[in-house]
Amino acid sequence: DAGVIQSPRHEVTEMGQEVTLRCKPISGHNSLFWYRQTMMRGLELLIYFNNNVPIDDSGMPEDRFSAKMPNASFSTLKIQPSEPRDSAVYFCASSLKGVSNQPQHFGDGTRLSIL
Amino acid sequence: AQSVSQHNHHVILSEAASLELGCNYSYGGTVNLFWYVQYPGQHLQLLLKYFSGDPLVKGIKGFEAEFIKSKFSFNLRKPSVQWSDTAEYFCAVTPYSGAGSYQLTFGKGTKLSVIP
Fold first, then answer.
1. What average pLDDT does the structure give for chain A?
2. Among chain B residues, CA nearest to A97
3. How many CA atoms lie within 13 A of B74 on its CB side?
4. pLDDT for B6
5. How far is A100 from chain B (nearest CA, A)?
6. Residue of B nearest to A104 (CA)
7. Which of A55, A104, A107 is nearest residue B104 as measured by Cβ atoms?
8. Are the beta carbons of B111 and B63 closer than 8 angstroms?
């Protein structure tokens, strides 16, 4: 059974460039989450989708960040333009329902380095 | 809004030692509680969860956790650690129900290093 699939695993790019991170949730899961993990702030929820609709984007740091979920099996997180302070590990997670008794399953993450 | 605090940033133990990692949460209502583990270079995996019932929950790999409601705590324990338990451990909480029940709030994590 395939888990949450993220790509790329690693991304190194120069500041100012556009970065696109991709996520394929577990089939049948209708809730999708994007998190950012840094040493300073730990794991932070960026955005939550339910049935492909963004429900809570209050964690998105600023307008440079955008996320889409065009269908139930694919989501993107885009940063444009990227800055060095965006360097972090970005995780995608999915769950069967967006409720607390359905554990979230995490992907392997994308380690992003902005030079 | 809920918050989670993990008392120890880094714990170093020898193999066969007993482990207890502290976790306290802050929230005015009923919660569900989780422990996740992140092995080096890997994704977060669910270790165990508490929703209701017996406050002592058992998870994978010999881990257990006890929910003490009066102390707002959910400490993780293992009687005898192995080198393969070297990882970072995250406590997390969600509201039991309501509009924000998807909101999984994590602690900052505790890094466990087990020395052979």
1. 92
2. B102
3. 29
4. 95
5. 5
6. B46
7. A104
8. no
Domains of chain B with bracketed CATH: 3-115 (2.60.40.10)
Q: How far apart are CA A20 and CA A65, in angstroms?
A: 10
- Helix (H) or strand (E) segment spanning residue B115: strand B110-115
Contact A99 B97 (CB under 8 A): yes
pLDDT in tens, B13-31: 999 999 999 999 998 888 8
CA distances from A15 to A11, A40, A84, A114, B88 (A): 12, 21, 6, 6, 30
- The angle at the Cα of B4, spanning B111 to B42, to the nearest 5 degrees, equals 40
CA B33 – CA B51 distance, rounded (Å): 7
Tell me the pLDDT band of A1, cut-offs 50, 70 and 90: low
Q: Please give the Cα distance from B21 to B10 (Å, whole number).
A: 10
Q: Show the 3-state SS of A28-56.
A: CCCEEEEEEEECCCEEEEEEEEECCEEEE
Integer Cα distance of B39 and B108 in angstroms: 15
A residues 20-59 closer than 8 Å to B (CB): 31, 33, 42-43, 45, 48, 50, 55-56
More confident residue, B1 or B77: B77
A13 confidence band (pLDDT: 50, 70, 90): very high
Q: Give the pLDDT confidence of B27-81 residue by residue, as tens digits.
A: 888 889 999 999 988 889 999 999 889 999 999 999 999 999 999 999 999 999 9
| Cα distance between residue A93 and residue A87, in whole Å | 19
